[in-house]
Amino acid sequence: MAEAVDSVAALRQHHSSVVEHINSLYRVYYARGVDPAEKKAQVTAGLTEGVTLLKAFEASLFESSSAPAYERRVGHNLLKELQLLLATAQRELNPRPPFSFSSRKLLAVIKEQRPELKEKDTLDAERVDETCLMRGGKGERRVAGGDGEGEGGDYSIMDMDRCTVIVKSMANSVFINDCTKSVFILGPSTGSIHISRCTDCLFVLFCHQLRIHETHSTAFAVCTGSNPIIENSTGLTFHPCTVSEAEGVLGGMLTETEGGAPAWAELVEAKGLRLSEDKAMGVLDFTCFRDHSGAWEAVRDGMPLEERVRQWGPQRYGPVGGLGELEE
Description:
alpha/beta; Pectate Lyase C-like; 2 domains
């Protein structure tokens, strides 16, 4: 078992080196006083190297087919996160020209051959594959999604400090890393939500699967399709929450320019997601070599979600939308 832990540590170190490479590309991209042509050449070469590093990381996962299940699971999550980060960097730092038909005649031919294909569907595949990256917020309010934006895609959220983050869209997978003292209210996810290295946060989540790693002193108001899984985490509390209740809270938080509250309950029903408050309260702790007592607690205190958001905002570390004023 000690070998498994050492292998996971090596995977995380390898993962960190790839993340640092991707971050260095952003520093090059936003550097001042550099010739644009030289900057573009450096970024393009760096993205190519990033693909090579990603392939090397993926190859390292399959060097031993007899690796423990825990190691394979951690490696798969890290790989998916790197794929998401690199795809986002490619789109933001070296975007492709927007797709367009060269002529209406070509579009007419496609419609004739595929009468069942609606015009908007020609871009659906590209839209679904898009990822949304939010990073580096401090004392900010971020609202993403809505009106079809980011629908069915992946979200990566990282390095948020004292922020309020609202994702109105129904996503596929969501990765949230290295956040502190922030509130997250996310639309239902058809896949998994992965939370790593977060401290003193509140998450309002609805998803098929919830996985939490190295997270501490954090509360979850959740409804899930399977039992949440935690690893190497402490001081977590889980509270039951319904999609309709979250819709109501958002209705009071969103400003006119941010749009109205999304119809999450209708989306959940349309997608056939089976979410259960009881599942969300049955947490599975997969931490190795530690007494699991005190790592998490299921709390059914009957507190309204709006009040819970308010308590985790001004009373603890600052503002949360329109629910309170800053208290230092």
